[in-house]
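ok trying this again, last paste got cut off
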Amino acid sequence: MRRNLTAVALLFAPVALSAQTPPSPATVARLTDSLARAFIAQRGSPSVAIGITRGGTPVVMKAWGKADLEQEINAAANSVYRIGSVTKQFTSAAVMQLVEQNKVRLGDSIATYLSSLPAAWRGVTVKQLLNHTSGIPSYTSSSAWMGRWGEEMKPDTLLAFTASMPMKFSPGTRWEYNNTGYVLLGMLIEKVAGRTWADDMEARFFKPLGLSDTRNCMTSPVVLRRVHGYEPDGTGWRNSAFLAMTQPYAAGALCSTIGDLSRWNRALHTGNVVSAQSYALMTTAEGAAAARNYGFGLGRDTVGGQPIVSHNGGINGFITENVWVPNGEVSVSVLTNSGAAPAGRLRRQVMLATLGLPLEYPPKVAALTAADRARYSGVYLLAFPGGLREFTVAEQGTELTGMMAGQQPNPLLHYGNHTFGASFDPTVRISFTVEQGRATKMILMQGANRTEGARK
């Protein structure tokens, strides 16, 4: 599962890739250690685990900080973290294996395999579920679901949250991230494979690939070295809100370690999980998904001019980044136990260090006066495809926080010139239009998305 975090930051300019020899493992380890220590010191997360391999050889396998604050337990390289939506690449790989076995066809309606679906959903194909172009409403965007996080639920119950809602758009015409789609894919796997999604993952991937610490991360079983999840709270931390782990299901219920994710990355991206044809489909963005560079549970991007294949994950108390660099067969996994961790920024810094490129640093943060805080504080109505949503900017001591309706407030960093950022997401920024000393409008940018709205 991925949380649509209300964070803002300035984008960094790309750095040209040099033709130099990759840095030595010792150099990468030294730089990674420095980055991780700074990350913990700056309260990026109570702990972070970072796994780096090159050509299958470990370069860094280490953790920093606390896996459990209450018991004062240090994180270790084999600590087990929830990985959220990184789960989706396991689910999509299972579907592609079924396609290779001629048990599933990508162009089939999902109703071919699951008969008891709303009429409006029956025209959606398996492929459209895989690449988030189905138009089916996502249950994690439902206000009714947000009030029931503590309940154990079956997949049918998750579908019921949005079964009566209208389609967001005609299938195949747009891209919108969708957890309901991956719930349906989990149900498809169960129907075709004849076993639960969790049992299928274990038999299909975990046991054959030696992923001994990767599992369906239910709350009640004892999980050795399980990490606890947290959220920032003023100058400290609080336990993350409880989420019954039957709810993320095939969209985000797995937990894993940096070692297991490194092994998974190498197996998946070097032809040991799916065929070359299936892998090409998983990593190629087509149709409405092309603008977002999203394939099947995997996205494409570049870092320092190098092409990468990646996916992140966000779930209560945890943010994960998992990346593969085809050139040099480099795997980078970053696991954190804060639901507001700037894991994406740290992952990018670690990758630059691994590739031997200059590190990037955020803009200098400027102090806010009382007049500044009053100038920007207020509620703004942002226009999204599904309608207007409130974004609240509020004073907290000498700082400002930003909060999308239904989410947690996050500290804003003042960069000057009516522009703000945040410590945990380098793909987003907020800028304000100020008239006669008062902000009248704000613009929110996150990745390729841009929305704006007037002050309420």
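PB: full thing came through this time. DSSP finds twelve helices and 20 strands in the chain.
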